Amino acid sequence: MHGRRTHDVRPQRPPESIENNARSSAALMEETFVKHTFLAGIFAAAVALPAYAADYTIMAPAAPGGGWDQTARTLQTVMQKEGISGNVQVMNVPGAGGTIGLAQFTGQNNGNPNALIVGGYVMVGAILTNQSPVTLKDVTPIARLTGEYEAIVVPAASDIKTMGDLVAKLKADPGSVSWGGGSAGGTDHIAVGLIAKASGVDPTKINYVAFSGGGEALAAILGGQVTAGVSGYGEFESQVKSGQLRLLAVSSEKRIDGVDAPTLKEAGVDVAVENWRMVAAAPGLSAEQTAAITADFDKLSKSASWQEQLKTKGWADTYLAGDAFKAQLDKDVSATEGILKEIGLVQ
């Protein structure tokens, strides 16, 4: 039996290279599975996330603190919170009742679907009184957003206690009563002109002091630099509630819930004025681009976040979009021109 070798019948361990290859294959399969699972997760998450239509930039064509600035920043907050846009920036370009910002907006954004501008009744009057070469016909109207009534206030230390007291002073000497408000030809100015006319005073004799932003106007009113202040109620609300300002009247047809003040009509002045604010897009957009922006604002107007902001700020929901808004805008421009001619601001 010498020279004969017996076979080892124990299980043989595979060569190291084969074992390593087997491990590599298993690892590769596991890595591939993990990658596919990870990518599928990303895809599912992407589908679940809101599809951001645009990163908008909103121009407020006024100084910080006023109604347009408040509107722009409220839009910014709600659009981001509701997932309508992932990133919204606000820029302020004050001056001349919004016409300086309007001219810059139209000149720099032709065909840009990401650019928006807020405006409103004030801008309609400012375009007419400033004889602006750029008008609302040079933008793409999207929607009317809110309505707000005018408030007439005096500093808490004023000897004027009622709207009747203010009207008596106005009748005695129109020039001695200075009114602080927004830009010339805007809602505030129109309201003062109509108050004068309804009180039997020549509207061209009023002493109206125009400010480019709500913050500046408020400082002048609180500082006693003007006899009375005129602006949207929301811009005075905190100072009225804190006792710094006395609210004499509001320009609504009926009393406003939660506001302790008579209407101008109740106070014997037959005037009712409602300011409104809107959003417009750049000129030169396609029908598809305009429709996409309008859809974003339709979504915003119905959102719980927007409705909550309206309540908090005391803004009336006057949402109107598309062709209906364009038609209403044309009517408002025509009516405003008539009022401004009546009170001597437009020839």
* The CATH architecture of the largest domain: 3-Layer(aba) Sandwich
The dominant shape is globular
| Mean of pLDDT | 86
Question: How is the biggest beta sheet arranged?
Answer: 10 strands, mixed
C-alpha termini separation: 133 Å
Q: What count of domains describes the coordinates?
A: 2
CATH hierarchy, class of the largest domain: Alpha Beta
Report strand %.
Answer: 15-25%
Structural class: alpha/beta
CATH topology of the largest domain: D-Maltodextrin-Binding Protein, domain 2
Helix content: 40-55%
CATH homology superfamily of the largest domain: Bordetella uptake gene, domain 1
Q: Would you identify the regions where 5 or more consecutive residues have pLDDT less than 50? A: 1-29, 32-51
Global Rg: 32 Å
- Treating each run of at least 4 consecutive H or I residues as one helix, how many helices? 11
Extended strand count: 10
Q: H/E element string?
A: HEHEHEHEHEHEHEHEEHHEH
